[in-house]
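Q: Hi! First time doing this. I have a protein sequence and I read that you can turn it into a structure. Is that right? Here it is:
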Amino acid sequence: MMKYDFDAVIIGGGAAGLTASGIAANFGAKTMMIEKDRLGGDCTWTGCIPSKTLIKAASIVHQAKKSSRFGVDISIEDINLETLLKHVDDVRTEVYEDADRPEIYEEMGIEVVFGAASFKNQHIVEIQLENGTVREVTSKYFFICSGSSAFVPDISGLNDVDYLTNDSLFEINDIPDSVAIIGAGPIGCEMAQSFVRLGREVTVLDIEDRIMLKDDPELAAILRDSLEAEGVKFVLGSSIQKVDQKGAEITVHYEQKGVAGEVKCRALLMATGRRANVSDLNLKNAGINHSAKGIDVNDRCRTNLRHIYAAGDVTGRYQLTHMSEHMAKIAVTNALIKVPMKIDHKHVPWATFTDPELAHIGSSEEDLKRQGVDFETYRFPFSKIDRAITDGNTNGLIKIYAKKWSGKILGASVVGAHAGEIISEYALAMKNGVSLRDFADTIHPYPSYGLGARRAADQWYIRNQSETLVKWIKRIFRYRGEIPDYSDPNRIV
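A: Yes, that's right. Below is the predicted 3D structure, encoded as structure tokens:
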């Protein structure tokens, strides 16, 4: 039997790589983690942490401007964007220091190596170290967690323009007074709202005719209305023809319904998705099946080779930090201790942290109709959630898709304040087979947004009442009150 240098070598130190390394070390495996840049990956440095910090800062500015709604008057005369962006950098550095520093993992017994890894063959990885030398290592198992990078489509003139992606956005120390964003997905919408709240003029362009294509159309429309009310301009159903730059001014040329148009701006953000980091790994040397979309893995996160696994963005399956961590757990558990775990595709929560937030889990209304599934949709507006009323957050809606008689939850979509937290309740319910009846019978604190999640479940009880049943109850117990009006099947109580 071949003697390997390591039991587990993890390529990449982002969300998936950090999780995989920590679990492997906890299982007693001799572990190496290879990272070519900085530990923490996209989430810490260019994604979740800096974007949510910027969103929070912009939200404070917005709330101050709207403070008269709450009977107070807070005026903001000037915003120092350099100081604000310095705060964003400080927060991501704090997260790195608290959770991602190499020393933290070295204390677990993990060897952390900085360099570019590539496969020499199925059992050997070459590391191009920062000092220019090359180190070769062998391992019983390899876990590829190299993540993804911003995808920029081929647009005429783009290479001659100083454009931004999320990979470069948080390295600037100012935000120009006008910004065009190509892409109306989560990144595009989150940043558009933040920039507008910071006093910038923002236009979002997208080839699709609606925003947030993966979310419920009705709820995405509520979000769009909210963004437009704050000043975000949308140019949807538009194809980008070319971009050019003269001095500091960038022009985006587009065509919409056969009519040419242009948007002038001082900054251009490309929010057009992400692509798996596979090109520099020399996967062909190891015979690992892959494509431009990512590395092919099965539901146990194993590649076509028994000793090589992949997790996170590099697989092209999900571009979500929580799924990167989930897949890393699946991969390492299957490889190192042979517990047959599989990726949980049915209970993947998605959340976009705009205001209002937008989230969903499970099957969508469109999916269920297309599959011919018999289901009911239960709706509950934020205008009936008392905590939302006290907070001034009544713009929102909860939709639950479930079986009529059993109350089995098939999916849920939420737009509104704290939608990312509310969807977590439905995720827990779905994962553990909690029906709408069980959900409705669970005590929630008042007043809370969680109670809104429960009141949405209450609608299952309301919908399953019938006039005939109530008449029998009234007759049996000789009650004398009026019978409620059951003529509207969509009534909300």
